[in-house]
Amino acid sequence: MDGNGGSEAVPAAAGCGCAGSCGREPGTGNAALALRGDVAALPGDVAEQDGARLIDEIRALEVEKSALSARQARLTVAFEQLQRRQQCHLGIPADRLGAGIGAQIALARGESPAKGNRLLGLAKALVTEMPHTLAAVETGQLNEWRATLLVRETASLSAADRSSVDEELAPDTGTLTGAGDRAVVAAARAAAYRRDPRSVTQRAAHAATERHVSLRPAPDTMCYLTALLPVSAGVAVYAALSRHADTLRSGGDERARGQIMADDLVEWTTGTPGGITGIEIQLIMTDRTLFQGDSEPARLTGYGVVPAGWARTMARAVEPASSEELSVWVRRLYTAPGTGELVAMDSRARLFPAPLKRFIQARDDTCRTPYCDAPIRHHDHIVPWHNGGTTSLENAAGLCEACNHTKEAPGWSVKPRPGPARADRLRHTIELRTPTGHTYHSTAPPLPGTQLDVSSTEACRHRRELRRYAKVRMRGRGLLAAEGTRTA
Predict the structure, then answer these.
(1) Hey, which of 185-189, 336-340, 415-419 has the most confident mean pLDDT?
(2) Could you give the CA distance from residue 469 to residue 34 in angstroms, rounded to a whole number?
């Protein structure tokens, strides 16, 4: 899970630089605390008296960020090479070498597994094929995002041609200083086309095979429905929607042009005005929210938290223009009082039966791997069936396809982990251990109606520690400033 209330990690070892909670002994120092302390320690009158110095420091920090991202790239490549050697010594087949490496990078950087694989590919391209671009990132002439653009636009080239483009552009000599994203992309595309026009043409042809439709949440119970299409198809769809919207507007339709286009897209796709058809939409709420007007938010599977009033309206909606009434099915999900934990269901079968799958879907919402919010595709045994694992809610986790395959790689292990004896920690928790020995915990997101005792969580303790550290640094800065004034 990515950033929602369901993923958490073992407290990070101070000094290890691990953002994701490794299980090693603490060291000395803490980069996150130091950075927060520096920010909090800025005197209040500095912003008014010396804006130039603040801009200088902002720029210096930006250069340092770029240098750190370059260092991350070098460490990522070194880690990948080490892991491949270790996997080879374990006798893993050649076609399986490298499995799970991107996922480990993702966990360490607090990103989704898909993003981790992209970061691994970026690091390998910079370190092994684009030394000038990497040098520009190390010196702060290019940030990580613009380096990513250069790598992306040369992805279809051979290693030799990519290195040639890197040498031609030579970002480390300042050739791209002041260039925006579009200028960087244009320069890379032009250079790539000069090197190998055939591969660029083939890349454009291959892009059509990657067409897809995706859905992601937007604020205020809205969402983004995105289609990646060949340009001819995309232009044709947009033109058809535009023409029909203009026709209705000229006929007196009071809706805005964009509203008509959006409504037509839904109706033409689903065949129903408003888009509500026989497809099941899982809306999870408490009985108090549905029947008693309670304000406890609901949860829409595949979207997230929605307001109680909107959920009631959705649950009771009937389309008057339809020839068939909308059927609303209420499926009761019993939870333990106070904790919100779903009451367990067990099965003697190896495969999860449909009712248990619905329970898992309702409890986990998205993939249970930390930082991954991909849709659930596999209902998986945490402890494998062949190792004595039961087909039960406690031994089940909803995973995306990629994460389910990753956890089967050598060196990975997953086990259920009972939460601490507090009301806000009795939700279903699993522990994920990587081949390097780092452990990460994932807790199922709270269901509607769950009461959280935030005053007793470790987060409050961590915040108090940050505030104390910031105060100490502020006192230290104040003493240094006073000493400097006396010296002057």
Answers:
(1) 185-189
(2) 8
Contact 343, 334 (CB under 8 A): yes
Contact, 398 vs 378, CB < 8 A?
Answer: yes
Distance (Å, whole) CA 338 – CA 449: 8
Kindly give, in sequence order, each residue whose CB lies less than 8 Å from that of residue 410, ignoring residues fewer than 6 positions away. Answer: 87, 90, 92, 435
- Joined together, the tokens standing for residue 352 give 């999860």
Would the pLDDT of 90 be above 50?
A: yes
351: CB partners within 8 A, 6+ apart: 391
What is the torsion angle, in degrees rounded to the nearest 10, for the CA atoms of residue 396, residue 401, residue 405 and residue 406? -90
Question: Residue 402: helix, strand or coil by DSSP?
Answer: helix
Tokens of residue 409, six digits: 């790689």
Q: Give me the DSSP letters along 241-294.
A: HHHHHHHHHHTT--S-HHHHHHHHHHHHHHSSTTS--SS---EE--HHHHHS--
Q: What is the average pLDDT across 153-182?
A: 93
User: Is the model's pLDDT at 87 over the cut of 80?
Assistant: yes
Bridge-based pairing state of the strands 391-392 and 396-399? unpaired
CA distance 105 to 98: 12
Question: Which H or E element spans position 314?
Answer: helix 308-316
Cα distance between residue 101 and residue 31, in whole Å: 25
pLDDT tens for 421-439 read 444 456 889 999 999 999 9
Q: What is the pLDDT of residues 316-358, one digit of tens each?
A: 664 444 444 445 555 655 555 555 665 555 555 678 888 888 8
Least-confidence region, from 10-19, 162-171, 228-237, 260-269? 10-19
Residues with Cβ within 8 Å of 202's Cβ and at least 6 positions away in sequence, in order, are 156
H/E element holding 471? Answer: helix 458-487
Mean pLDDT of the chain: 80
Cα dihedral 130/134/136/137 (nearest 10): 140
Residue 461 token pair: 């303790």
